[in-house]
């Protein structure tokens, strides 16, 4: 019997307090051993931009990458830059590895962001827009249009646009209007023809209207004009009797970083709703203007918005290229990636009688691992919960929900289960950034259906991806579990790369029972079998695993560390990896976004290799593998190597015990690290793209290869 104060995670030691890597001498680790996390994030967004700049990619996909870049950068300013500014203003410590002061750090980040925004605008005007025009999708200027086209657009303007426009004057009787965050606006200077007095007006471009208006269509050839340009060329209708002196587009980004003192509020939902209202009025942190804006207009905006010169971004092109997401409605498959259809995991495929696969029966045979989007979310995770909701033998369902879609079949399955009389617990993380309002809506919808909804632990976000189904079989209760690396969101599952492990293991069932009791009640659990759980055990467990490989290398035993994450930031983990590498352990890191570790630095990290894969799918899974080839201890889960994941979130990693599943993940890892695979490689703090061989031919696309390999396994089964 395991004592309640002992955690058995399969690591081979007890959870005592004697293990403390902080006591390891850091004498040989230089002070400048970390890359600044904000600059590293900007380097990630640059990798996204480099895909948009790649002429080998289909034009509409390149436009989509420009939209992703723009959306990413908006969130970076709203959260990361805003948070940094807040810490400077409030006098909180600002961790930084660049510059000598926090203000230096902000200046360096601003300089890098300015350069990237200019490059982004250039990619649209000089590369992507011409490529689209060559393919028959053209974006035109108003002055290039003929009389008939202008007449058609004038009719559209008066019928669809003019009625919803709201010009706001600025004068002694009309104070400067509130400018909402991320809205696209026109700053207009006008002159009264009678008095000669100059005035200023602000006009918001209606966000509910199509950003690009169709001018003409001839077969596959279509021409568009930007909505703001259409409006700008009809300002005379909005200001009759006035002379239009000048007009320019501008866009404001506001601080939308939320701070809630959970331990000082009696009702989290009410506090969150109040904070959401406050977010709308956060202070400005970035002003984007067209590069031809005159100094009079710019000075007015800067003064009224209380913006510094460093926070002004002059853009030589259209603002807010998130609008390019709307090109998704264009029916031109020849201008996109070749379609890839996910397959059903082999274990969940229907039998010879063509009936729908029985997921519970499959899990009684063995654990099943699915790899999205290559294997279908709908026929695995969604089917699992839908089958559980309908099955009369299922007594209870417990699930964590971090982000999902409002019309999610996952939410509907939980509602159906509750209405069928089952016990249903949904742990809804209402603090998931930018999904707060949506999460509150469907949390209340779940409550109305009879689902027991809880909101996690005070001071912690619940980020783990867990589903636990309890089924009665022959008078005995049996657990069926799913632990994943990605959200229970059918929409993002089509573009996010993630793993999910299904199991009927009794020990995992006990683990999830204990963990859900901790999340919904007052239990403080210290005993797990196959899980590593943050914030109590995960950091120490990973550090032990890293240190175990270091000790093996020192003893001459084959060792290896492989980690795949979205972000590698945590200093304690990074230092442990540096020490392992210095002991001779090959350390391979596969990272999507931020990476503060510096690989390949003489005397520091010669044995550390870092690769990044950015492509049609967003690499989102987290894998942690320790041990030489064929003898790995492998975990998957939801945690990145960041302070918030290890210290301020409920995270869970599960150990994968099936040798075939481990081997398959390691084969994919081999490809990600291979010099014949298209990746970005990090040396020190510089990322370099390697996507062509010595003859100029494309290197292996890992994501295309994985899709082909998954379909190949299915074909092999069918032909047997």
Automatic annotation (TrEMBL):
Record PTM: An intermediate of this reaction is the autophosphorylated ppk in which a phosphate is covalently linked to a histidine residue through a N-P bond.
Reaction catalyzed: [phosphate](n) + ATP = [phosphate](n+1) + ADP
Pfam families, per database record: PP_kinase, PP_kinase_C, PP_kinase_C_1, PP_kinase_N
Domain Polyphosphate kinase middle: 149-327
Gene3D superfamilies according to UniProt: Endonuclease Chain A, Polyphosphate kinase middle domain, Polyphosphate kinase N-terminal domain
GO terms, molecular function: kinase activity
Active site: 463 (phosphohistidine intermediate)
Cofactor requirement: Mg(2+)
Membrane found in the keyword field: no
PANTHER family: POLYPHOSPHATE KINASE (PTHR30218)
Family: Belongs to the polyphosphate kinase 1 (PPK1) family.
Name of this protein: Polyphosphate kinase
Gene from which this protein is expressed: ppk
């Amino acid at each position: 019997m395991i004592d309640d104060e002992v955690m058995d995670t399969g690591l081979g030691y007890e959870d005592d307090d004697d293990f403390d890597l902080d006591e390891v001498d850091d004498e040989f680790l230089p002070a400048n051993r970390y890359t600044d996390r904000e600059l590293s994030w900007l380097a990630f967004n640059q990798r996204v931009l480099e895909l948009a700049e790649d002429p080998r990619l289909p034009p509409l996909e390149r436009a989509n990458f420009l939209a992703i870049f723009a959306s990413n950068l908006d969130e970076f300013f709203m959260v990361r830059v805003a948070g940094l500014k807040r810490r400077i203003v409030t006098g909180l410590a600002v961790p930084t590895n660049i510059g000598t002061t926090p203000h230096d750090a902000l200046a360096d980040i601003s300089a890098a962001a300015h350069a990237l925004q200019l490059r982004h605008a250039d990619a649209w005007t000089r590369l992507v827009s011409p490529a689209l025009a060559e393919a028959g999708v053209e974006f035109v200027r108003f002055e290039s249009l003929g009389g008939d086209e202008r007449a058609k657009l004038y009719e559209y303007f008066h019928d669809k646009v003019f009625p919803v426009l709201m010009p706001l004057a600025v004068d002694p009787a009309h104070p400067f209007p509130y400018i909402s965050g991320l809205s696209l606006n026109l700053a207009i200077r006008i002159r009264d023809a009678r008095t000669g007095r100059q005035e200023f007006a602000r006009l918001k471009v209606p966000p509910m209207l199509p950003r690009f208006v169709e001018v003409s269509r001839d077969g596959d050839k279509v021409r568009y004009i930007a909505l703001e340009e259409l409006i700008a060329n009809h300002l005379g209708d909005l200001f009759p009797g006035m002379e239009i002196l000048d007009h320019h587009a501008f866009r404001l980004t506001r601080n939308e970083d939320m701070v809630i003192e959970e331990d000082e509020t009696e009702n989290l939902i009410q506090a969150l709703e109040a904070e959401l209202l406050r977010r709308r009025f956060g202070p400005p942190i970035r002003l984007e203007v067209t590069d031809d804006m005159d100094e009079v207009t710019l000075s007015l905006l800067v003064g009224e918005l209380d913006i510094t010169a460093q926070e002004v971004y002059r853009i030589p092109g259209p603002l807010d290229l998130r609008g390019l997401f709307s090109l998704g409605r264009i029916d031109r498959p020849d201008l996109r990636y070749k379609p890839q259809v996910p397959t059903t995991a082999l274990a969940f495929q229907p039998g010879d009688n063509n009936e729908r696969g029985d997921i519970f029966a499959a899990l009684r045979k063995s654990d099943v691992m699915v790899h999205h989007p290559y294997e279908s979310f709908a026929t695995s995770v969604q089917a699992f919960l839908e089958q559980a909701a309908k099955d009369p033998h299922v007594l209870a369902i417990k699930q964590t929900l971090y982000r999902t879609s409002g019309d999610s079949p996952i939410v509907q399955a939980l509602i159906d289960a509750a209405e069928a009389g089952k016990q249903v617990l949904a742990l809804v993380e209402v603090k998931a950034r930018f999904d707060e309002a949506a999460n509150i809506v469907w949390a209340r919808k779940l409550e109305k259906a009879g689902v027991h909804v809880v909101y996690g632990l005070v001071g912690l976000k619940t980020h783990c991806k867990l589903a636990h189904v309890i089924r009665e079989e022959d008078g005995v209760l049996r657990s069926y579990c799913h632990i994943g690396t990605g959200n229970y969101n059918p929409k993002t599952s089509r573009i996010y790369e993630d793993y999910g492990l299904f199991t009927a293991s009794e020990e995992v069932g006990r683990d999830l029972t204990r963990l859900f009791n901790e999340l919904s009640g007052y239990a403080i659990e210290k005993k797990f079998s196959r899980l590593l759980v943050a914030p109590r055990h995960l950091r120490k467990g990973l550090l032990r695993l890293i240190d175990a490989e270091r000790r093996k290398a020192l003893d001459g035993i084959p060792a290896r560390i492989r980690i795949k994450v979205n972000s590698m930031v945590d200093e304690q983990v990074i230092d442990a990896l540096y020490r392992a590498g210095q002991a001779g352990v090959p350390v391979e890191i596969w990272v999507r976004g931020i990476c503060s570790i510096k690989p390949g630095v003489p005397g520091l990290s010669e044995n550390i290799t870092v690769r990044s894969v950015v492509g049609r799918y967003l690499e989102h899974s987290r894998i942690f593998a320790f041990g030489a080839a064929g003898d790995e201890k492998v975990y998957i889960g939801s945690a990145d190597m960041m302070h918030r994941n290890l210290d301020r979130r409920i995270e869970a990693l599960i150990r994968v015990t099936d040798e075939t599943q481990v081997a398959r993940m390691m084969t994919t890892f081999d490809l990600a690290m291979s010099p014949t695979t298209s990746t970005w490689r990090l040396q020190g703090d510089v990322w370099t793209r390697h996507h062509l061989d010595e003859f100029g031919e494309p290197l292996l696309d890992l994501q295309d290869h994985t899709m082909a390999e998954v379909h190949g396994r299915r074909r092999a089964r069918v032909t047997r």
